[in-house]
Amino acid sequence: MSMEKTKKTVRELRIFGLTMTAASAVLGLIFLWRGFPGWIVLFCIAAFFLLVGLTVPIILRPIEWLWMKVAHAIGIVMTFILLTLTYYIIITIIGLLMRFFGRDPMKRKFEKETRSYWTDVDPNGPTSRPEKPY
Length: 134
Prior knowledge:
The longest helix is centred in the middle third of the chain and has 40 residues, at 61-100. The protein has a domain at 10-100. 61% of the residues lie in helices and 0% in strands. It starts with 9 loop residues before the first helix and ends in a 34-residue tail after the last helix. It is mostly helical. The chain has helices at 10-34, 39-55, 61-100. The chain is built from 3 helices and no strands.
């Protein structure tokens, strides 16, 4: 996905400012409630975004541009991490379950007394196969 170079409208920048106000205020409230230092800084940031977002939202353009670049980079990294973890967790679980139940779909077990590993197949296919599957 490419990030298009489009100029944000005043309305979009105002929405960005109000969203950042809400996010900073909620985070500030959580910090205040839990007794963490820095809650006053978050409220000042919320006040800045509220003031600028309502009066001169065009000033928020570079902040919004930087925020979107950072969010895009985080999105790429998180997508890679989540898809990698999901793939390896699923493959590992399936492999462990197949070993636990003794399933070997590729028939890899080596047998010394076997002369050939060729599997005879009916040339017409299984009788349960439909003539026109589609």
